[in-house]
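Reminder to self: tokens first, then the designed residues, so the page reads top to bottom the way the pipeline ran.
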């Protein structure tokens, strides 16, 4: 189970698909909301239900800063970030719900 307090994460709909970067204090809850389409918005509109990358932070300000930096990145940089740890773009849901 995840023990840190804040998370920056990337959701997608398929390998090399649409990307969404977010920040949360409860990764399991937030990914569940994305998967179930519980919140209107970008991720529901585009069917982004696959968690492909995340980082943990102890400080909310660091997490928000990282999220903002990633959102400004070029797409190819985001793809490299994902593939550095998740080459096949597996859904990491099982990993965060152990």
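Designed residues (98 positions):
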């Amino acid at each position: 189970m995840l023990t840190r307090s804040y998370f920056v994460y990337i959701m997608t709909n398929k390998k090399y698909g649409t990307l969404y970067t977010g920040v949360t204090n409860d990764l399991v809850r937030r990914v569940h909301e994305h998967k179930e389409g519980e919140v209107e918005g970008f991720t529901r509109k585009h069917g982004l239900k696959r968690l492909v990358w995340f980082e943990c932070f102890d400080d909310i300000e660091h997490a928000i800063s990282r999220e903002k930096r990633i959102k400004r990145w070029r797409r190819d940089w985001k793809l490299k970030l994902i593939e550095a740890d998740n080459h096949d773009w597996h859904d990491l849901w099982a990993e965060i719900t152990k």
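The longest helix spans residues 60-72.
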